[in-house]
Specification:
- The complex is a heterodimer of chains A (about 400) and B (about 130).
- In chain A, about 50% of the residues lie in helices and about 15% in strands.
- With about 400 residues, chain A is α+β, with helices and mostly antiparallel strands.
- In chain A, the strands form four sheets. A three-stranded antiparallel beta sheet of chain A has the order 1-2-3. Chain A has a three-stranded antiparallel beta sheet with strand order 6-7-8. In chain A, strands 4-5 form a two-stranded antiparallel ribbon.
- Chain B is of the alpha+beta class and about 130 residues long.
- Chain B has a domain of about 80 residues: Alpha-Beta Plaits (2-Layer Sandwich), CATH 3.30.70.3270.
- Classes of the chains: A alpha+beta (about 400), B alpha+beta (about 130).
- The interface between A and B is large, with 42 and 30 residues.
Amino acid sequence: MRFQIPIGPQHPALKEPISLRMTVEGEIIRDADIRLGYNHRGLEKLAEQKTWIQNIYLTERICGICSHSHTTCYVQGVEKLMELEPPKRGLYIRTLVAELERIHSHLLWLGVAGHEAGFDSFFMYTWRDREIVMDILEIICGNRVHYGINTIGGVRRDLDEQQVKHILDSLAILRQRSEYYQHLGTNEPSFVARLAGVGYLSREDAIALCAVGPTLRASGVPMDVRKDDPYAVYDEVPFEVCTADTCDVLGRTVVRIKELFQCYNIIEYLLKNLPSGPVAVRAPRRAKPNEVVSRYEAPRGENIHYIKSNGTDKPERLKVRAPTLGNYAATIKMLKNGFIADVPLIFAAIDPCICCAERAVSLVDARSGQEKIISMNSLKTLSLKVSAGKARKREAEWPL
Amino acid sequence: MKIGVFIPELLRHLFKKPATVDYPLQKLEVPRDFRGSPYLRPELCIVCRACERDCPAEAIEITATNEAEKRFRMVIHNDRCIHCAQCVDSCPTEAMLMDTRFEISDYDRHNLKMEWEYVRAVVKPKAEPKTS
């Protein structure tokens, strides 16, 4: 006997609106379907009406947790369009903030994983330690969440000796805490038992379904944009790509904890080798007509921005592919043949950011269940066709 | 089988100070470069409108009240402001600055509006507008 269970768009297990439809046989999920579109904000269209500078702050607001990822991805693309070469010190600070953001995102995820696994003390402790890195970010950038450190042609703020010392001191504490979490994560029997074997995604499936970030690396594929296509100063910084081969939620936890240590090493290297000089170059207001694709390894995975310019001070098109969107196909695979009780854990393991991923409009035919992605233009034509020739509703009133 | 790897940590926390502060009574100090609300130093404003043009939230509004006397009025809509400090970066004469207030909530969004009426200043902008 098969049943279909809808979870969401509003559900206590999910922090953001998304709809999961699962076909279950008893407790076992046989089929899963993800529906998007509950949090669409029209961000790409808005970007076409704002200038290059204004768009930095718009792309920053695509996501709260990986705000620096989106601005860096965007700014790198615009710098390529404007043929700018940001100074070395600016790139070092940009990379530094990127790595600090990765620490804060991974600590946040560890807490969420603990919470979903029913280990709330772990959640409290990781989030308390996350405050240390949030304080560092506040000191560097002047704000805890939207850092606003990037500008076209470099960064907006410089580091001084005192700040460097503060960061290094705080990192020592964080490193010590992370060592404890690593010890805990691998030794606490209840925690490990809850995570092991949940959400299995084989190496072949991970590649075939284009999984990104820690989800992909936990399936034993050493793929990282920072290594494969180095941007900023990653070609100078020594670090390793962390992988795990258990292919489950435990593996994703291990990858993230290992990445934390890589982050600490990278930050120490950056601060010890910080070159002197200016942090930014002056950017022109216009960009020549061209198009560019920019890639960035966000804490959640590969982030892609496509930018097209037309010679004015505004972009003609900005397309954002957030990492969560790349992981949805793999999530469906992970959910299949799992238990209903594992849904929040599996879903949390990709570190979903739903509002990042909401982009396209899809139409579903209610009778046949057929679905098609439709472009804005054809949607407009369709609406004109439907409303053509009809009498205008002059006396129409707002129902409330 | 290992039991209770977490227990020493739990016990240690019985004797630790709380991580939070008693907020209304005790306040944390904001960092030096904190981005609070933007404000204008009218004696330095040359009405180049760089801040108005670059503001991503369109929160700055400059209008001429008297063209002959070169009197201008600047309104900062703090209810729209996203506190990015781009106006501070765009300003060639450092007339825009950020304060360090963070308790700026109000019951009425119109109370958050700040305005200045001033005569345009004659200040020579720096050769290169600030980019850092």
